[in-house]
Amino acid sequence: MTWLTEGPASSLEAEDWPLLAAVCALPWAFGGVEIWAYRSAAFLIVVAAFIAVSRSGWEGILPARDRRWLVLPLLLGLWGLFQCVPLPPVAVNLLSPHAAAIYRDAAPPLEDRAMAYLPGDAAMPQDSPAPAMETPSGYPWRSLSLYPAGTLERSLWFLALFLAFLLAGRRSSKAERCTVYKVVLLANMTLLALVGIMQLFHDNGKLLWIRESARELRSIGPYVNPNHFGGVMELAVPWLLGYSWWRFRKGGIQAIKEPQAPVALGAGLLCLVAGFFSASKMTAALIALGLVFLVLLCLRSLRSRVLALTVVVVLAAVAFFGLGGTELAQRVEDFSSASAGDLAQYERVVVWKAALPMVADYPLTGVGFGAFGQVFSAYVPPGETRLWLQLHNDYLEVLVEGGLVAGLLLLALMWAYGSRLFRMQLAGTLGRTVAPARIGMVVGLVCLSLHALVDFNHQIPGNALMFVVVAAVAMHRHSESVS
What we know:
The chain crosses the membrane at residues 36-58, 70-88, 146-168, 180-201, 228-248, 260-277, 283-299, 306-325, 398-417, 437-454. The chain is an all-alpha fold.
């Protein structure tokens, strides 16, 4: 990768500015979790897409080739919209019998409700209506989603993310413009890390020192939850350190005289420190594992890999003892010393088990995207008083909310994207020289995807938009000078 001095911002066109503005600004809007924030970002994405289409037709947002697999994310978004569509009771009963039963218990048949408004004895019909189970046609049309308003909101945001992926992929197909996208993304991540570290030394308990946080978790930078701040660092650290490694490997000691290598190294170390001091156990583990894989994939000989891994282990040991007394060390100690019955430490596992009956009750269609928090209260374990709005496992939550349909579509999408990314960036890397920057970008994407097994980074709009734009940029492999 080169910096903006070599890949000037003049390569950007009208459609690039609103897209980059949305990607950069949304994390600073407190992660983009509030409706005004992500709707504003979605508006900017639509504006960027409109400009691109008006200038170049549909070719302005669609990839030049290999388009067929893109039907998968489109179908996933359309499935969410379909969950909001009112269907006849027979269709709801066929596709989601448990939801149909809830609707029947919640409201009497239409003819019964009509007679309830008649005066006197007219309210009592002469012939009793058939049981509700046998007269589904007497009920109003309802949606498969038990919370259609939330499902509609979630689905439209997902489609906005898909549009951002298409647009970013098309715009970064040119090497010079791709360079600018990479620099802007990494600069924004580095600035987030800098602000997060500054807050460690002067924390007044507010988001960005200006806004009260209603949550008990310690805020860091613009994020209420340090795990979500750590998710950004997972994207940044392997990418930045991989790039600085490539610059030093290419130019040797002389690379230190150029601004790119030392700046990237400093930014990578800054993000590394910020990630560890976010006190997220998963962030610390994934960054460490990510750097190990970066070393394994980028070195050619067995001897160099063993030597590098030895250095990594030594540095990890030093960091472990050096972090003694920090909040991260305390959280690791609390987790490792917790008993098997300590719900406070294993509450995610307990909640995952509690969510499995939801999968059994709504196997095909799910409860509706965005409806988990509305429905899960009926499944919480006895004695659990915490309000669970997310399942802390994005993949299981997709299965709960979207059913088998969404689960299969997500698996197919992950396979389709992952196989193309592997062929584009990683195929044949073992045993030969490969730009570590490209490998680092992929490793960062994998780290954040693994984090989704125990958290909900992809439900934080700022992180989700950053993830899909990085994923789109990673689909292009330009010359080494812009890697």
